[in-house]
# Entry
Amino acid sequence: MLGSKRVLLIIGGGIAAYKSLELIRLLKKSGAFVTPVLTASGAEFVTPLSVSALAGEKVYSSLFDLTDEAEMGHIQLSRVADLVVVAPATADLMAKMAGGRAEDLASTLLLATDTPVMVAPAMNVRMWEHKATQRNL
# Structure
């Protein structure tokens, strides 16, 4: 089903970020190519080394990395994917998506992509039920 599909996986900064490691493993097992993007807060929960080791790919994290921009600019990175997955999608990431904010690599990629985006929200139940979060869905 996912054979040779390219998945851009954006890993947000929540306690559920550790589950992204298992998601990478399952996507790879299904034949997908996984390009990981690790937010600054996501890196507080999982390391770039563990993400890269499982994905078998470089981990992207900075919008202003000159090497990354020279090799594959952030716009191109958003366009080569067949699917963008945001997991975990924190309240902050969802607010950025809803507001059209592009202030870091993850939010810029989400604003620039024209491919389907799958969002897996993960947060405390009170954060989930908050009016602001519900508006951002």
User: Anything to note?
Assistant: The chain has a mean pLDDT of 92. The chain has one domain: 6-136. The beta strands are 6-11, 33-38, 83-89, 117-121.
